[in-house]
């Protein structure tokens, strides 16, 4: 079976709510597990479905926690080690800043670094997960999920908030200083910090660091021959020490050790790099 590593945009009705759909399917020989995936923190909350072999989170002692077949994933702040089965398939919906809070009614601060059973939060998602498991194409999975999401989005009060806009600017690397960003949405610094944690799950400073590291890793994967320091500066770092500190704080290791681990990620077996 040809490996699948597909990213699709949302339909126009879900623009501003869904950032992207990602469908991955990787098959390994029977009885052989996929290699560990060092999953660096990204600036997003997500809803993930595992219609084939489940994914497990592996802690530092090698103990595994199996994820539910439909999982709400809060804003991560650290690298996680993920293990899939021989037939690994994940369909993940990455939400725009603040969208999952509006859809679920949950404070994202309660979901930070957490994985919840999505069917417990949205009971009618059980039938959706069943249909996604039966879908024969990535496009059918996306259509099924969007048919479930669209009426919920339409029923939600739009509730536009400057904090969500500010988070999008941080993801794009277009924010400038955090104090200036707070002033642009007419929030005092403390109020901005509180609202940001409620809507995004972390402080604006930490979110900015996660977004910056994510930009750098994706840029590196897209152009592995490029000069490392030039990529770092392009992503918003001042120098190598500045970059290395974010790797240590957010991934637990320096840049070289992270790159070595990421080079052994499951998709690399098929010549695919996440970018």
UniProtKB/TrEMBL annotation:
- Gene3D superfamilies of this UniProt entry? Homeodomain-like (1.10.10.60)
**Which of UniProt's keywords are assigned here?**
DNA-binding, Transcription, Transcription regulation
Is the keyword Transcription regulation assigned to this protein?
yes
Q: Which GO terms describe its molecular function?
A: DNA-binding transcription factor activity; sequence-specific DNA binding
Q: Where is the HTH araC/xylS-type domain?
A: 177-261
Which Pfam families does the entry link to? DUF6597, HTH_18
Alphabetized InterPro entries for the sequence: AraC_XylS_family_regulators (IPR050204), DUF6597 (IPR046532), HTH_AraC (IPR018060)
This protein is called AraC family transcriptional regulator
Organism classification? Bacteria, Pseudomonadati, Pseudomonadota, Alphaproteobacteria, Caulobacterales
């Amino acid at each position: 079976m040809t490996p699948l590593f597909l990213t699709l945009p949302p339909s126009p009705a879900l623009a501003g709510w869904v950032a992207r759909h990602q469908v991955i399917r990787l098959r390994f020989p029977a009885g052989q597990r996929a290699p560990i995936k060092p999953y660096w923190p990204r600036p997003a909350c997500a809803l993930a479905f595992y219609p084939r072999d489940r994914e497990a989170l592996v802690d530092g002692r090698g103990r595994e926690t199996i994820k539910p077949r439909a999982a709400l994933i809060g804003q991560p702040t650290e690298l996680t080690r993920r293990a899939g089965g021989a037939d690994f398939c994940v369909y993940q919906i990455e939400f725009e800043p603040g969208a999952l809070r509006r859809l679920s009614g949950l404070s994202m601060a309660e979901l930070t670094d957490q994985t919840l059973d999505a069917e417990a939060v949205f009971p009618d998602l059980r039938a959706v997960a069943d249909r996604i498991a039966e879908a024969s194409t990535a496009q059918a999975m996306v259509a099924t999920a969007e048919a479930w999401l669209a009426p919920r989005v339409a029923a939600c009060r739009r509730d536009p908030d400057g904090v969500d806009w500010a988070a999008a600017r941080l993801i794009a690397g277009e924010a400038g200083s955090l104090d200036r960003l707070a002033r642009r949405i007419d929030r005092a610094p403390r109020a901005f910090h509180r609202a940001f944690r409620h809507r995004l799950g972390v402080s604006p400073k930490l979110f900015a660091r996660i977004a910056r590291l994510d930009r750098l890793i994706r840029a590196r994967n897209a152009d592995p021959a490029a000069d490392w320091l030039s990529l770092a500066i392009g992503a918003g770092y001042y120098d190598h020490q500045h970059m290395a500190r974010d790797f240590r704080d957010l991934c637990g290791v320096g840049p070289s050790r992270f790159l070595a681990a990421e080079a052994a990620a499951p998709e690399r077996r098929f010549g695919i790099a996440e970018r």
